[in-house]
Amino acid sequence: MNGGPALVSIMRQGSTLIASVHTALDDSELVRFEHDLVDQIGEHRSRGVIIDVAALDVIDSFAALTLRRIAEMARLRGALTVVVGIQPAVAFTMVQLGMGTGNVPTALDLEEGLQLLAEQALPAGPSRSSTAGDGSR
Predict the structure, then answer these.
(1) For residue 46, what pLDDT is reported?
(2) Whole-angstrom distance, CA of residue 59 vs CA of residue 94
(3) Least enclosed by CB within 10 Å: which of 15, 20, 98, 102?
(4) Per residue in 14-54, pLDDT tens?
(5) Bridge-partner residues for 18, per DSSP?
C-alpha cells in the first residue's frame, strides 16, 4: 500500500487466500485492500478467502460494510469468505451498535476458518460421488 510496513498481508494456501489485517485501516486503505483481494481471487482462481481481523481492536461501520462487500464480490467470483479473529470487545461493540457481518460466516480463528471452508466445499466435492455407490438404499 505504501513504503512502510505492510498493513495487510495476503498469502495463498492451495485454493484459499488468507488476508491478515495487521493494523487499523483508514477508509482509503480499506478500499485498496478490497480491490487487491478481489483481484487476487481471480488471479489465483481461489475458492476460499479468509480475512483475519484478530489484530483489530475496532471495526467501524465502514470496515464492517467493506468486509460484507468483499464477501459478496468473492462469492460472485466463486469463492466463499470467512472472517476470523473478531476480538470479544469488538464483537460486543459491533452488537451494541447494531453492526454485523451480515451473512458472512465467521470463525474464532484461522484453524476454524479453514475447517469451515473445507466443510462448505464438501457438498460440491468428492463426498457426493463416494456416497452414491455405497449401496445404502
Answers:
(1) 97
(2) 7
(3) 98
(4) 999 999 999 999 999 999 999 999 999 999 999 999 999 99
(5) 11, 50
Write out the three cell numbers for 83. 472472517
Answer yes or no: are the C-beta atoms of 40 and 10 closer than 8 Å.
yes
Q: Helices (DSSP H) in the chain: which residue ranges?
A: 27-44, 61-76, 88-96, 110-121, 127-132
Count of all residues that appear for the chain in the document: 137
DSSP assignment of 43-74: HHT-SEEEEE-TT-S---HHHHHHHHHHHHHH
How far does the chain reach from its first CA to its final CA, in angstroms?
57
Domain 8-115 has CATH 3.30.750.24: yes
Sequence ranges of the domains in the chain:
8-115
